[in-house]
Amino acid sequence: MTIETWALYVGTVLLFMCTPGPSHLLMLSVSASNGFQRSLVTAAGDLTANAIQIVLAGVGLAAALSASEYGFAVVKWLGVSYLIWLGTNQVIRSFKTRGAAASAGQASLKSLWARGFITSAANPKAVVFFAALFPQFLSSAHSLLPQILVLGFSYILIDGIFLSAYGKCGNWVAMKLSDRKQVWVERFAGVGLIGTALLLGLKSQRS
Fold first, then answer.
1. What percent of the chain shows pLDDT beyond 70?
2. In the chain, how long is the greatest CA-to-CA distance?
3. Alpha carbons 102 and 81: distance in angstroms, whole number
């Protein structure tokens, strides 16, 4: 792969990333209520799902996913339902005492990872996206596996930077609020989770 081809690919991915998606909204929510460093676990979950989707696209399973509309719908709506459930519970907890809400806001690392993974996995069309995007930058004159690895790693690196930036932003907003306003951070985080789910649902309906 030439440097020119790679640069064109990076530019294409950056353009794609400029529009905030469900994972970015999730990072704002998680970082606001759990802190930036803990939100990186959520980013890791998201990127893990991306890596799996890239592998699936690389081995040619995109066509199989496209043919299974029922499987598509099940994966999407399970993810949407899970995020709505999480967000609703967090909003309800925020109306309790501030101390209880604060302790409830610190989710386990396993839960934070699962939020990121499920949000990304709830969009199985990503497999089709990668399968459609990668061939535009692959050369049949060279081995495909190294090229796919370069494209996949580059995407995950760029996405990781964007997710970290959104996490920093959410944490910065939360730190600027006084202790009396921390309860609104919990509510914002809960609404953010619900908003993430609704955004995923809208994208599914448009599809």
1. 74
2. 64
3. 24
